[in-house]
Amino acid sequence: MTAMLNIKDLRAYYGQVQALHGLEFGLNEGSLTTLLGANGAGKTTTLRAICNMVRSTGSIEFDGASLSGRSTESIVRLGIAHVPQGRGTFTTMTVEENLQLGAITRKDKAGVTSDIERMYDHFPVLKERHTQQAGTLSGGEQQMLAVARALMLRPRLMLLDEPSFGLAPLIVRDLFKILGKINREDKVTILVVEQNAQLALELADKAYVIETGRIVMSGSAAEIAGNEDIRKSYLGY
Q: Could you tell me the strand order of the sheet in which 214-220 lies?
């Protein structure tokens, strides 16, 4: 697999407080990678730094091109979709209007229509609710809509921040199955930040464990899941 995202010596700051301390990792094209760690470890900050939503230094390259100095909007246009924690759907707009908004930068109307139907294939409940305001959906349905709206960009890389947050276990399982399908069938490279370490490791190919803004362990998801000391010390199960 070809390297898609390369991060070197990444440091991030909130005011005078340093949140990341020299992170280095890479994502291969077509991979599904998880970034694990406790609350406050720096997982969300890492995703924000990739999208230039927080002050940072170091090197972030996507497909060989530096992301340094680019606006968040231009980073999205390169093919990087970010689904933040809290979902961020437009609550007063319908499901279908949210999906159309996800494709607002695209000019191929036929392709947009086709992709909306493809999202409904991935998430049948959204088709049932397509005229409903997003704010009236359940938490799980809103998370599905947030993922579907991001996919309307036709991204090459998707960044997901705590997709299981606040959702019932069965809904989480269904959502993660769909993410695996999107990775395999649509060839979308995925980086998922997740507190549900056990489920994330079942889904991912590779895992990085972060603590206080530093990567303390990396390896295949199977290796991390099989290391009892890591699981007990860093992952809480």
A: 80-83, 157-161, 189-193, 32-36, 206-211, 214-220
Q: For 118-146, what is each residue's pLDDT tens digit? A: 999 999 999 999 999 999 999 999 999 99
Residues 122 and 149 both lie in one domain: yes
Q: Is the pLDDT of residue 158 over 70?
A: yes
* Buried residues in 109-146 as b, exposed as e (16+ CB within 10 A): eeebeebbeebbebbebbeebbeebbeebeebbbbbbb
Residue partners of 127: CB distance under 8 A and separation at least 6: 120
In one-letter notation, the amino acid at residue 171 is I
More confidently predicted of 38 and 95:
95
Q: Distance between CA atoms of 105 and 117, rounded to whole angstroms? A: 18
Q: 69 with 11, same domain?
A: yes
Q: Give the Cα separation of 94 and 100 in Å (integer).
A: 10
179 is written with which tokens?
Answer: 């993410």
Decide if 197 contacts 231 (C-beta within 8 A): yes
The parent domain of residue 108 ranges over: 92-153
Question: Token digits for 156?
Answer: 């090459």
* Same domain membership, residue 168 and residue 105: no
Per-residue pLDDT averaged across 71-79, rounded? Answer: 94
pTM: 0.93
